[in-house]
Amino acid sequence: MNFSKSHLEQNNSGKGERFSRAGFILAAIGSSVGLGNMWKFPYITGENGGAAFFLLFIVCLLLIGLPVLLAELAIGRSGRGSAATAFIKAGGHKGWLAAGLLQVLTPFIILSFYVIIAGWTLQYAITSFSGSLFSNADFGGQFDSFIGGYMPIVWQFVSVLITGWIVAKGVSNGIEKFNKVLIPAMLVLLIILMIRAITLPGAGAGVSFFLNPDFSQLTTESALVALGHAFFSLSLGMGILVTYGSYVDKNQSLGAATVAVGAGDLIYAFIAGLIIFPTTFSFGIAPDQGPKLIFVALPAAFSAMPLGFLFGGLFFILLAIAALTSAVSLLEVPVKYFMERLSWSRNLAVWVISLAVFIVGLPSALSMGLVPEFNINGTNLFDWMDFMASNIMLPVGGLLVTIFAGYFWKTAAEASGLKSGWFKVWLFMLRYVAPILVLLVLLHTSGIIHF
């Protein structure tokens, strides 16, 4: 592949596509407010003691997440290229192409299994509204039967189609308009479900669990989990914010945008906690049930409450919106790369990559039950892909961002738009705090070190 400087300068497919100021913030919030907030955050909070873990998550988000978020946006806006070439276009050595290509590959891998879970949420929304979800009280058996059959593949295909249709419409007419409608809609649904949850009998115990900290519950393990989730919930290390940064107007304050995105991510996670924990405690469901909390434990709770089919349907519609807003941002990263690299039209790039995503994701979907032979050392392919992307590729990508911005980026001060004092704080975090802590997360999640 020829990535000469002249090639990088000339081939800038998608040039002219831009977010509006509000549209960019909503799109960035949409990329971060995904299943990480609505699915993963509640169960890891439940597994790590509740309120104390939530406070630790906030600290990690402020100290590590936001500095890296700003770095990715600034690199993207400075380079105005795809995630693959942004480092070089921002002034980096051509050797940084490898770091950029990793940030194109990672979202592709994540999207291949992410659309599978998005499909689950669509299935559960429909079966909840129809009432068929509650026709059998064995919710664990229903879930196992569902993911072990053919229907997840059908819904995986539907999720890919919806995601591709939105991205094919472009940055302002597709991604921005989609997020302008659905992010506020998500907030309305969250508030409706939160009011229902906190008014349930016995909900006070769940609210207390989530808001009254018991620091004796925290461990070193909890700290690393909180740091990892703060990092990953903002969509860092996967090229999304580098790509979105390339669509940001040069006059937009990246510092203010970073704070707005972080605040949006935190607010959605906070309200999600006030839905999940009051509901589970109200119906005597343990909050530490892991990934099945959403698809097994909560349907049991909805089945026992008045109008549970309605609130269950609204909840899974909320999950589906969260999943699709993130899927859209994941798809845009490789789409922009192939538009830039091969001068493809947006439509061609979207549908070729969408087809590839579906095909690559099929073995992961099949490994959940239909073809258990699709496994690596006893781990089904779905879980293995999730582990490799989330625990290896994302931390490595994020670590490279901190190293580039902290040590090798000569125009970082100008690109960030920060005043001298704030720039020094930001640079200190990128040089001496973020890389060390991200490296610890990488070593821990990959099993190299244990606490």
From TrEMBL:
Its main location: membrane. It is found in: Membrane. InterPro entries: Na/ntran_symport, SNS_sf, YocR/YhdH-like. It comes from the Bacteria. SUPFAM superfamilies: SNF-like. The keyword Transport applies. Pfam families: SNF. The chain crosses the membrane at residues 21-39, 51-75, 96-126, 146-167, 187-211, 223-245, 266-286, 306-328, 348-372, 392-409, 421-443. Keywords: Membrane, Symport, Transmembrane, Transmembrane helix, Transport. It is a multi-pass membrane protein. Belongs to the sodium:neurotransmitter symporter (SNF) (TC 2.A.22) family. PANTHER family: TRANSPORTER. This is Transporter.
